[in-house]
Amino acid sequence: MARKLNLRIWRGNRETGALQNVTVEANEGEVVLDVIHRVQAEQLNDLAVRWNCKAGKCGSCSMEINGKPRLACMTQVASFPEDEEITITPLRAFPVIKDLVTDVSFNYKKAMEIPAFEPPVGMKPGEPRMAQMDVERSQEFRKCIECFLCQDTCHVIRDHEENKESFAGPRFFIRIAELDMHPLDILRNRKKKAQEEHGLGMCNITKCCTEVCPEHIRITDNAIIPMKERVVDEKYDPIRWLGSKIRKREGIL
Amino acid sequence: MTNQIERHKYDILVIGAGGAGLRAAVEAREAGLRVAIICKSLFGKAHTVMAEGGAAASMGNVNDNDNWMVHFRDTMRGGKFLNHYRMAELHAKEAPDRIWELEMWGALFDRTKEGKISQRNFGGHEYPRLAHVGDRTGLELIRTMQQRIVALQQKDKAETGNAESNIKVFAELTITEILKEGGKVSGAYGYWRENGAEVLFEAPAVVLATGGVGKTFKITSNSWEGTGDGHALALKAGANLVDMEFLQFHPTGMVWPPSVRGILVTESVRGEGGVLTNTDGERFMFKYIPDVFKDKYADNEAEADRWYEDQDNNRRPPELLPRDEVARAINSEVKAGRGTEHGGVFLDVSKRIPAEVIKKRLPSMWHQFYELAGVDITKEAMEVGPTCHYVMGGIEVDPDTAAAVGVPGLYAAGECAGGMHGSNRLGGNSLTDLLVFGRRAGMGAAEYVKSAGSNPVSEAAISAAAAKIQAPFTRTGGENPYKLHQELQEITHNLVGIIRTKKELDEAIVKIADIRKRISNVTVTGNREFNPGFHLSFDLDNMLLIAESTAKSAVVREESRGGHTRDDFPAMSPAWRQKNNISSFNGTEVAVKQQPLPVLPKELFDLFDPHELEKYMSPEEMAKGGSN
Amino acid sequence: MATGVFSSTRAKISERTLRTDKWWLQPLITFSVLVAFIIYATLRAFENGNYFAEPLISPFYSPCLSAACVQGASLLGQPFGIVKLLGMTISPALFILIFPLGFRMTCYYYRKAYYRSFWMSPPACAVAEPHSKYTGETRAPLILQNAHRYFFYIGLIFNVLLTVDAVLAFRNPEKQWGHMSVGTLVLLANATFLWLYSASCHTCRHTIGGRLRNFSKHPLRYKAWTVVSVLNHKHQNFAWVSLLGVAFADFYVRQVASGSFTNFYFF
Predict the structure, then answer these.
(1) Is the CB of residue B55 less than 8 Å from the CB of residue B128?
(2) Residue A66 and residue C19: Cβ atoms within 8 Å?
(3) Which residues of B are catalytically annotated?
(4) Is residue B335 a contact partner of residue B328, using CB atoms and an 8 Å limit?
């Protein structure tokens, strides 16, 4: 059953832009990306939108739908009431390029700043033995599809452009947590760096990242807070600091 | 004008940033060369992320009877012995090393009890062989490689102060042409998708790793990127395509609801116990076991069910037959009127496995359909049918170096290269194909560059390439590219689809030629800034070449084999098994000629039971017993 | 200079948010309940009375440590004597409340709750916050949030004491064992909620196993960690239940002590 859908789509570029009203047909079972494609094919041939898999796996079609950061391919039209107008804008934490497409290079720059995985010296391919229970925590974070919705919603940078320099954002806190919990990684200064270079302390754990994650990664509870606790172990807990000086604990650091 | 364009100079240009492209780039960089990686979309979004089941490598972690020879046999059998034996051999031998290497770069595969990489069963593989991470193995693979590239860049930054000094990713850039000077590759020309600004890359070697061609078809699991760019770029540069008639229709794509149409239901759903039924409630796959598979697949439900518990003493359920067999079976059921109103059959895993086990073993399957379409696979059956998934055909390459035949300096790996999978690819073989041949392409290109040196681009070549990009804007009153694309998809879907006949293929060839005429008149509205209509006008040109090559190859191959089914020639022909269809392009149209398939050497021939080979080979071939 | 979503490079949209749902409702509720609790707790802390009715003691005052405490309320004696400030006797509740207050103020869940509802930083997801500067928890005083684990340890001591209080409530007003009243249930429930709140705490999860790199070398701690992880999922619920529980326990004791309620005995 087709229905008429009233959309307000933001169109513009870096200099200027506005919401444009569009009416389009929507069929049963369709998602917002489907109707955007229809608009593109039938009405606005040059409407810019980024997308790839249309299956919630690549994280390309990130945008804001009725003010909420979402994947357009995972937002069902049926989830909106019949008469509701749907407002679609580009991500508002990043510089806009055109229409619904933003410049997300910030994230790639941050990825570069996180020291890569470092396996034990002398370990050869095929040698690693890891228990499933030891890889599961990091595996959760590796589910990340890099849609950057968590980065977009995080008020630390969304609301404060100037913090972009010193703050890596939730996507990269889970990357740091993944590596710090990786059974084979040998770098031991990740916690310190997280706090001193990547701005972990800027996070005030208001959990918007977790709320928007399409992969349901529990970013705050499973990555950011455990990392904050690990930072406390290292930097702010005098008893643990003393303890670590007195005896070397296996597998703890 | 030409002196204003952006210019870059590299040793090697890798076009495509999926698994194969990134693996090639890593290899070339590690060989000490400067590498540019071009992606059409953002870095890390390539279609590789969609691969769910796993990566096939005979590590023998779960069943130690497995080894490269068994894997090689399975691959050849799956490809119906049309594979380039050397590619299948290299693939089977090197796959385990490529997987282990990923682990050293930070990949975290699911584990066995002993802490090794866990391996799962998959259609066509004799033993549990697919290394996996839940059902998001492709994502793991691409992310690992992406992070490996970042690691290399960090190393460069420490040494040179510039992270991008030796390896740089150019994201959202489309290549429109491969440039040649003196018959050899000299670089490539393209434009930034963001603003349409033109870019020239000067590089003596180009690696094509652009993936598939699915967007040529109406129902496909491929994203917008699967427009056969690499295939077309290679053809236009003078390389050949091999066996373009072989397309894999994944048997179980969703056919309903529309928001998930074409999206795959991974084979692991069947591997974990999902069964296919028609609208009569019949588990129909037992009717479709071909003779060549009779001794490997159970012919009754009781035995098939026992297999899930005891794989050593029972034959496999027929739901796990190679993809082409399952696709054809579903197609036949639907044609016989036993399909759903949306043209599919039911795939049900909910009645056999408890909901929480499904969610644990197939997490992204569950999540995807629940969130994308409100379908809960733990409670209800899915409606599935064949969807265009993978092209076995591709650029003709030398197996060891991945060098494209006929164009010095051009290399190809991954889905856009042909030969490895023969007439049909086994699930799980593509991820290791990417790794094995991505690495070989990187190595091959690096060696070539080291001996060949640079090959400067001429101003004439640049002006010609620039003129082509400007063309769609200079025309007026022509047709809308979206409309032409839809027309093309209808033609391929209806006439070059899963079941083919000479009459329909002939009709398709005529219609494709007609679109080719009209495309020269395509007009684009708007400007060059991130303009999808403009992008499509180039993609469309590529897809037309693919469609033409596929239709022309399909009409001459008078047999049914793997991903090519002729209603008018339903059987395999031992004569056609010895031939590859080679497509070439003369600037106006595609020509297809036959070329003998390299003959299995004796040591590989002897790996098979002669009784099996007899089903595929002529008595003369059998008598010869392989080459040498 | 405009920053945030109004920065010059961002898409030009004049609204702070385009959310159409009632995003302000959640912070409003949080704000109201917390304010109500603070008002109630402050009044009660300064009331300095009606906190003990043998055998029940209010969790706000237990273990009453100052010499100002009523007889029978000081389980651990009265080490502080009478503390006066500006000539006023400081209520014994203040010595106690500061610790649970510290535990909750530094709690990862409450931080989210009050940063959102009080500081509006941010008021809700994708709703622009009103502040022009933001430094998070990187400097004083918020850097003290890192002391959460110490409050957690102290909180455990209080949990033990309040559990003892609940056990002691299995007596009648004549201090004879083997009795049980509505007050017993109230204190028991309070202690249970507090244990659940502590056990589900993120610091607890970290201490018990989260800080390990290799679970497989510590199977018991892994087991404990998985249990705590399940509880941790519900930390928010336990935070609210235990907060309301403690207020209710105090309220109940107050009503009994002031004679408004009779503490009904089952046996």
Answers:
(1) no
(2) yes
(3) 250, 270
(4) no
The answer to whether the CB atoms of A131 and B111 lie below 8 A apart is yes
B213 near B20, Cβ under 8 Å? no
Report how far residue A139's alpha carbon sits from residue B118's, in angstroms, rounded to the nearest whole number. Answer: 14
Interface of B with A in 358-417 (CB under 8 A): 364, 367-368, 371-374
Rounded to two decimals, the pTM is 0.93
Q: Is the ipTM beyond the 0.90 threshold?
A: yes
Choose among A68, A75, A90, A95: nearest CA to A11.
A90
Contacts of A186 in chain C (CB under 8 A): none
Please write down the HEC assignment for all residues of B397-436: ECCCCCEECCCCCEEECHHHECCCCCCCCCCCHHHHHHHH
Helix, strand, or coil here: A169?
coil
Yes or no: say if A182 and A176 are a contact pair by the CB < 8 Å rule: no
Q: Per-residue DSSP letters for B62-108?
A: S-TT--HHHHHHHHHHHTTT-S-HHHHHHHHHHHHHHHHHHHHTT--
> B92: closest CA among B74, B107, B114?
B74
Does the distance separating the beta carbons of A182 and B108 come in below 8 Å?
Answer: yes
Helix (H) and strand (E) counts for chain A?
10, 7
CB pairs under 8 A between A and B: 172
Q: What superfamily would CATH give domain B6-246+392-460?
A: FAD/NAD(P)-binding domain (3.50.50.60)
Domain ranges in chain A?
3-101, 105-246
Tell me the mean pLDDT in the region C120-142: 94
| Domain residue ranges of chain B, discontinuous segments joined by + | 6-246+392-460, 249-388, 472-582, 598-628
Q: Which residues contact B5 (CB under 8 A, 6 or more apart)?
A: B197, B198, B199, B200, B462, B466
For helices C92-105 and C25-47, give the axis angle rounded to 10 degrees.
160
State the residue for tokens 């009405």.
A43
DSSP code at position A152: H
Hey, which chains touch B, using 3+ CB pairs under 8 Å?
Answer: A
Using alpha carbons, select from A181, B341, B577, B364 the residue that is nearest to residue C216: A181
Q: B187 in helix, strand or coil? A: strand
* Mean per-residue pLDDT, C180-194: 97
Residue B374 clears pLDDT 80, i.e. is over it: no
Substitution target in A227, A229, A250 with the highest count of C β-carbons within 10 Å is A229
Class of domain B472-582: mainly alpha
Q: Which amino acid is at B268?
A: S
> pLDDT tens-digit profile of B262-310?
888 888 888 888 999 999 999 999 999 988 889 999 999 999 989 988 8
- pLDDT for the residue A251: 43
CATH topology of domain B249-388: Flavocytochrome C3; Chain A, domain 1 (3.90.700)
Task: List, in order, residues 6 or more apart from A149 with CB less than 8 Å away.
Answer: A59, A62, A69, A70, A71, A91, A212, A213, A214
Mean pLDDT across chain C: 94
CATH class of A3-101: alpha beta
| Contact indicator for B523, B472 with CB cutoff of 8 Å | yes
Please compute the mean of the pLDDT values over residues B541-549 and round it to a whole number. 96
Pairing of strands B35-38, B167-170: parallel
Asked whether B549 and B583 are in contact (CB, 8 A), the reply is yes
Per-residue pLDDT, B14: 98
Residue indicated by tokens 């040998």: A186
Is residue B156 within 8 Å of B24, Cβ to Cβ? no
C9/C4 Cα distance (integer angstroms): 10
Q: To probe the interface with A, which of B111, B165, B534, B535 has the most A CB atoms within 10 Å?
A: B111
Tokens linked to C4: 């945030």
CATH H-level, domain A105-246: superfamily: Alpha-helical ferredoxin (1.10.1060.10)
